[in-house]
Amino acid sequence: MAYEIPVTQARAELAELINRVVYGGERVVVTRHGKPLVALVSAADLERLEGLAEEAEEHTISSVTSIGTTPSAPGEARRFGIAAEHRGPSAT
Question: Which residue in 12, 41, 84, 85 has the fewest CB atoms around it within 10 Å?
């Protein structure tokens, strides 16, 4: 659970908040009007979050790539009024 603090108070206590994050392992959420505005996390936490985001992106790309393409049924392009068809990089 993250420690929440209003932005006005966070300004006055920034050095202490940084110490809590770095040395205490806490996460601090700075709020404005009771709504989350920003979060202070350690550099190690940030690296982990970025790594998770990259893994998720790579998983999505590999999932989409594995689906591949399916050829259209004969005459389907004409039926729907499609004038051109993408044939991929090997078509000449």
Answer: 84
